[in-house]
Amino acid sequence: MILYFTADLIFATRIRSTAEALGIPARPARTVERLRELRLEESVNAVIVDLDAGDTAIDLIDAAACAEPPLRSLAFGPHVNIEAFEAAHRAGASQVMPRGRFAEQLPTLLRLLDTPTST
Predict the structure, then answer these.
(1) Contact 15, 31 (CB under 8 A)
(2) Residue 28, CB half-sphere, CA atoms under 13 Å: how many?
(3) What one-character-per-residue DSSP string does 3-61 give?
(4) What is the bridge-based pairing of β-strands 72-77 and 95-98?
(5) How many C-beta atoms surround the C-beta of residue 71 within 10 A?
(6) How open is the CA angle 53-15-79, to the nearest 5 degrees?
(7) Mind listing the pLDDT tens digit of every residue in the chain (119 residues)?
(8) Residues 61, 71, 9, CA angle at the centre, nearest 5°?
(9) Which terminus, N or C, of the chain has the lesser number of Cβ atoms within 10 Å?
(10) In the chain, where the domains are located
């Protein structure tokens, strides 16, 4: 399963519907607590986070990086928001990319993120 959090309902719908079309389970996780709950309920492979969500996005990335075992996290946002990209890297994001590239590569990214990591 892939968890996602986005500040934009259009992107949330796009992530969910693309994952659904690919047969990949995806659920929203808007808080660190929800991320932890879902990890207890199901096998989670990765987290996708919209950097426009501010501090909540960084908190989710940090929680994913500190989880046991750590979760991969992909952060995306406006290409001009260099500070948010740097904050995501510092929080432990596995991958950070501009929104346009994320949207362009969404099906491929979902397939890659759905693959369990070896521990």
Answers:
(1) no
(2) 13
(3) EEE-S-HHHHHHHHHHHHHHT--EEE--SHHHHHHHHHHS---EEEEEGGGTHHHHHHH
(4) parallel
(5) 24
(6) 50
(7) 999 999 889 989 999 999 999 999 999 999 999 999 998 888 899 999 999 988 999 999 999 999 888 999 999 998 888 898 999 999 999 999 999 999 999 999 999 999 876 54
(8) 50
(9) C
(10) 2-113
Task: Assign domain 2-113 to a CATH class.
Answer: alpha beta
Q: What does 31-42 look like in DSSP terms, one character per residue?
A: SHHHHHHHHHHS
CB atoms inside a 10 Å sphere around CB 88 = 26
Both structure tokens of 73 = 């996290």
